[in-house]
Amino acid sequence: MQDGAGAEAGSIQTLLTLLADGEEQALQLGDMMAADDPWSSRAEHYRGAARRLQCTLGKAAAAARAIEAAAPGSSRATDRSDSPRSADESSGGTTVATEVQERQSMCKRRKGLPRWTAKFRVPDASLEATPDDGFSWRKYGQKDILGAKFPRGYYRCTYRTAQACAATKQVQRSDTDLCVFDVTYQGEHACHQKQRATVAAKSQSPPPPAPLEQQLDPSMQLLGMGFKRVLKVETAGLHDHDHGPASAPAASFPFPFPSVPPFHQAGEATDNPAAAAAAAFSPPASSYFPPQHPVVVDGSCYADIYDYEAPGARMRGAESSELGEVVTRAITAPAAFDYSSLFHHQAELDDPHLPFPPFGGPPHGPYQ
DNA sequence: TGCATTTGACCGAA
DNA sequence: TTCGGTCAAATGCA
Questions:
Q1: Strand B contacts in A 141-180 (CB under 7 A)
Q2: Predicted confidence band at A118 (pLDDT cuts at 50, 70, 90)?
Q3: Which end of chain A is more exposed for a tag (fewer CB within 10 A), N or C?
Q4: Whole-number pLDDT of residue A147
Q5: Is nucleic acid strand C under 7 Å from A111's C-beta?
Q6: What pLDDT is attached to residue A159?
Q7: Within this chain, do residues A62 and A138 fall inside the same structural domain, yes or no?
Q8: What local confidence, expressed as pLDDT, does residue A364 receive?
Q9: Same-domain pairing of A70 and A109
């Protein structure tokens, strides 16, 4: 408490170290994935994503240095208090909410369970829908969150008791952009339910029984389903993650990937085609930045960003977990972090009823 | 009747 | 002490 300034300086130094590590790891990530990937287009994509990630981390490091330089002794050390803030505050008017979100992302985490965050947008801010990610969820709670305009919904897998499935998710609408939802997934699905291809509107008829292809990766399933129309994919810079909501309303917005944990051993060789497919479509265990993917929202796909926080055993070290935390903050604090530069895509589908993201998306998405 | 949602209470980490 | 996360009884709906 009393050596707040020193602690702050220490935390900045730690942050700088972590960001530097992150830059290096981003490079390694790009190289690793490119090396592992037989498809040159995907390799190039990963390299590009890694480069953007590296760039963003570099910016974050620069920002941290600026904060450190601007507040040498500093009152920011007590920024949990009422002391005036500076530096990143200039980037937007949502600092209070941002800090709350940062705290929220820190609190009450179940240690040892993989946790990752999806941020996605819907085309219509008036939309009152719950995300349909292809799994069955049961809402078990709702909580007003301090500093948040909207309550947070708590969901667990429908088969929690029947099949001891520990998967849970939290859904919260963004304060600053009503079109944006933050979904935090925690735990792997241990149940046997197959991730179904989701439909844009829940009122539509349910998907057909799982065909053989659903024994493979969900994204492979999706590729095998009624995919009749040509896709148009817009990439970085064409549609900002935080801007330009589309207009098509939707009763629900599916994003079938996040519920499949990102911890397939992507680097492990396997003779099992299904496992191979899953591995190929999953980020490596060392990646906390799975490639962003499009999200189908009633026919349109919207950029999405994920953060993954894996158990220590799956990570490269303690600092990796901390780095994941940094990126979590980057994602949950858009006002203070240019997360849109991490990954960026948008795709649009000609078929407004197309029930799936065109590329499967992470953790399994070859989106090229 | 069974399942899902709502909501107030409780627990526990920070 | 605060507040996010979970529990479980009450309620709603098909």
A1: 141-143, 153, 158
A2: confident
A3: N
A4: 86
A5: no
A6: 85
A7: no
A8: 35
A9: no
A221 shares its domain with A149: yes
Tell me which residue range forms the domain holding A54.
1-78
Question: Do A104 and A51 share a structural domain?
Answer: no
Region of A60 (left: φ > 0; alpha: ψ -120 to 50; beta: rest) is alpha
The percentage of chain A sitting over the pLDDT mark of 90, rounded to a whole number, equals 3
